[in-house]
Give the backbone structure.
Amino acid sequence: MITDHTQANDELKPIADFNKIARPDRLEGDSDTAYKQLSKLSGPKFDEEYIKVMVKDHDKTVRDFEDASHKVKNATLKVYIDKTLPVLRQHQQHAHELAKEGQTRKT
């Protein structure tokens, strides 16, 4: 996941720069809140909460990318979105599988 996210961000940087779109340089909002909460945890509790965050974030990101794919007018950005979306869907599926495994272990 880290490799895929790093690659996606590296591919997005020149598109954002060319279109003069500012990129955040720190976490904000829900991402910052989740980071702060997760940083206080360890062991199985960290794993459980991390998986919840990954499910929620990937569900939202996939929805946002699907929506943007239909609405975006910038051709370069559309190519980026359509290239990135299948990888995001794989991550989403993996996060859901991990969540399901965690629920199975609890029962």
Notes: Residues 12 and 80 are 7 Å apart (CA to CA). Helices lie at 2-18, 29-38, 43-71, 75-106. Residues 25-106 form one domain.
